[in-house]
Amino acid sequence: MNTSFKNISLKILKWTGIVTAGILLLLFLLPLLFPGKIASEVKKIANERLDTKMEFSKSKLSFFTHFPSLTVSLDDLSLTGSAPFGNDTLLKADQVAFGINLKRLIFDNEVKINKLYISDALINVMVNQKGQANYNIYVAPEDRKNEKEDPNAPEEGTAIRLERIDLKNCHVKYNDRSAKILVDAKGFNYIGKGNLSEDIFDLNTDAKIDTLDFYYGKTAYLRKKEVHADLITRINTHALSFILQKNELQINKLPLTFTGLFTILRDGYKINIKAASENTTVKDLLSVMPPEYLTWLEETEVSGKSNLVLSFRGDYNVSQNKKPNLAFNLKIKDGAVNYQNAPVPLTDFQMDLNALLPSLDTEQLAVNLRNLRFKVGEKDYFNAYLRSRGLSEMNIDASVKGALDLAVVDAALGLDKINIKGILKTDIKAKGLFSTSKKLFPKTIGGISLRNGWLKTDYYPNPITNITFVANALNKAGTYEDLIVAIAPASFTFEGNPVYINAALSDFSDLAYNAKIKGELNVGRIYQVFSQKGLDVSGYAKADLSLKGKQSYATTGQYSKLDNRGTILLKNIKATSELFPKSFFIKQGNFRFQNEKMWFEKFNASYGKSDFDINGYLLNTINYFLESKGTLSGNFNLKSKLINVDEFMALEKGENTDRKLEVEYAKEDHPKMSGVVMIPKNLNVSLSANADKVEYNGLVLNKLTGKLGVSKEGFQLENTTFNIIDCIMGVDASYKDESPVAAHFDAHLTAKDFSVQRAYKEIPMFHDMVTAAEKAQGIISVDYKIKGDLNGNMGPIYESLEGGGTINLRDVKIKGLKLFEGLSSKTGQKGLDNPNMKGIEIKSSIDDNLIHVEPFTFGVAGFRPTIKGTTSFDGLLDIRVRLGLPPFGIVGFPIVVTGTHEDPKIKIFSKTGQKIIGSVYDEKNNKVVKKEKVSKSRPK
User: Fold this and answer.
1) Is the pTM value of this prediction over 0.85?
2) Closest Cα partner for 272 from 243, 294, 248, 245?
3) Are 362 and 356 spatial neighbours (Cβ–Cβ below 8 Å)?
4) Which of 108, 381, 417, 868 matches a 20 to 30 Å C-alpha distance to 920?
5) Whole-angstrom Cα distance, residue 214 to residue 173?
């Protein structure tokens, strides 16, 4: 019996070993039996189904990469996006693996992909401001293109029928500029399972994100949040709809549930989603705060219940201007905050907030803050409500009332890195319509006051003390005219220096003001108090101002009724503009106010390598600061040792991080471009300029003098001269930026008696326009008008240029030019190859990337050649020559020169040339549609 059992056991082990070995052998052999088939099918699918560029370093077929699936793995895979993102990455991964349906492979000899594995990848989804996306890379099979189908249905019919999607350690970035949304998820791990081969299926998802950032309009609402997701999503592949059935998220400690529908259309989305976090704690809600506040949360006792509901419903289509409605509701009950056993806690925190944004239109924004209140200890309290609708025209019903000892609030909240004191009281009520265009202001009564204020931070050792602020407002009629605001007094002391402000403002339809400002301030140190990066310079400001008058006195020229006087002194101040990448550094600024004028008595500043010494005046500065949209006008004298134009270009590197949104987008789109110089639109200033040196795109302009103007129309140069290549050039020009990477210019250039060879070598535009100058020596003059567009590196777009003028050859010798060498060779006249040209005036015009030369005649070796024709900036030739024979050139014969500058084709006794069709340029989009080319028909 024992022997029989032993034999059976041995046989079982033997067959088990054989079967196992066989399976292992099969696992090794199968990839060897089908490698060509599978590799070719994968490439075929990529070529036929993807309208994009896919590259990978190597591929392999194995059971062991994602055991037990048979997978074809592509290493170092990169995939670009669909138009207009053809040069941008959609997917870049260390490895992408496709699981193969083994049954279909063995029995049907077909490659069917049923699993997708992506690891260590960047998934970069982009949508531009027009709503165009980079993920539309799929091409429908031919047998599906002619079918009549739902216009919103996606194209399908691929050999990819997924049952599992597995993403490991990926970086997923979704940047939708049309919606101003940026989602950045790092450490993205995702497993999705379901019968994805069905037209309608349920996708079970388990996802984890190490850090999630969410931005709207460049403002961060979530930063570095950990996310867990357990989702069941019903997917309809015909309509590409996602029905959110069971969708549970956890952002840090805040649980969220999602329900609803999301459908991807060809030109947008259909959205009906509700997100909720109900019956959670206030502490869980606060866990989604920025990371720097989470340490405070761990040290603080927080209680209370919260309910958060968000809904997003409607169609999103940029071309049809359709956007969904966004609704938000937050309720907090019985909230309390007690920081590390503070003397008294903040208690009875209640909040009920509703907000509705129809069609994502801020002009329709409706806010209903039914209640916001809390208590600190037994005495201090704060109550507020707000109901508003609209933005630029806003209906308001609001009330704020409270009395707070800020030192007690500071202790209760445990404010990090800041200590405050003072008695704050407020009691304000406002009801009515706010509209700047209609000059309406809500009926208002009340004020706010802070007494015995004190502020100190961890960033600077000394506090701001004696802070007093008392402001009252009264408006009985609900108009600008009836509004009265009094600030009396406002003051504080910093490092022993007091600052005082008293102001009375009335009749905001024609603002009457009476203000006094006096004090001195170490600006650099007070910036350190608030830890403002990039502004911690040793800045100093001193003011002694008395301002009294009405807006209309300045605008109607009643300057004698104004009583504006006093001085402002600035030293070592940094200032930035959203238009420029670097900071302006004001070394010293002495300003004097005299009625309508603000005099710059001494103003020294720098910007990068550039320096400015300015004196003159600005007009109506008081109006500019009082109006929401104003224009500063003035007249100045400007001196400079160096102005480096390149440093002002919008996309150059610099320490200024507060840039316009369009500039930030342009930097992302064009990382290798410098951008163009953007001109402020709120200036109307004239400057008499004198600069020792101006540097621009490799050019050096010396001793620039002339009249410069800056206005909303752009930048103008009038009667301006400078020294370049040892000659004086005169310029009248205008310049206007159209975007951060495009600009337009219009210029009239004159220059007398300069070296043609130096101009060819040192001036890029002359090099490209006058290619024959490469073989020329001598002195010429130029009088030319030209206009066109500049590209993202402030260089000319030649296809956009238009203009004309003359080039005068005072004394020029040409040697080695292939055109003349060819004429000499073809005619057998040696003297034609190196002509001397004196007193010749050549007239030409430019358009469509072509240069049209009018007839000009010169004498050489007894002959009188007359030349006219067309050439292109890219070197094409269609030149007609009449070679006048000695002695007077009355008798001659025709010659045609075609081909290119480098390879001219010369035909004697011929009038048949090659017509050059000019380029086509889209001025609206600054884009070359077609390059110039030689016509197939040959003109006579």
Assistant:
1) no
2) 243
3) no
4) 868
5) 10
